[in-house]
Amino acid sequence: MTAHSRRTLLKAGLTGASAVAAGLVVPSTAFAAVPLVRRDRPVLTHGVQSGDVTPGSAIVWSRADRPSRLVVEIARDPSFRHARRVPGPVVGPDSGGTGRV
């Protein structure tokens, strides 16, 4: 464990106080969060699972809180730079909220 000098602690305290003061000066609208979930859209109640992935297909499971269309985005790279949307079926209570693309 390293020993902290008085100077190191004072610098850290001043840095923290400056950050707090800057937060008080900047209007709160500058940091307003963009809502990720809209109330009119279905919500995935059980997350997303995948399995049986092959070079040409995969199985994707999810469940929504209301009848909705299953849409899957696929890409060849992890950054999803050139992603493709694949529309699936409308799923609801009759299918257990699950579908196959």
TrEMBL record:
Phospholipase D N-terminal domain sequence ranges: 46-101
InterPro entries per record: PhoD_N, TAT_signal
Keywords of the record: Signal
Record's signal peptide: 1-32
A Pfam family that the UniProt record links to this protein: PhoD_N
Full protein name: Alkaline phosphatase
Organism: Amycolatopsis vancoresmycina DSM 44592
Lineage: Bacteria, Bacillati, Actinomycetota, Actinomycetes, Pseudonocardiales
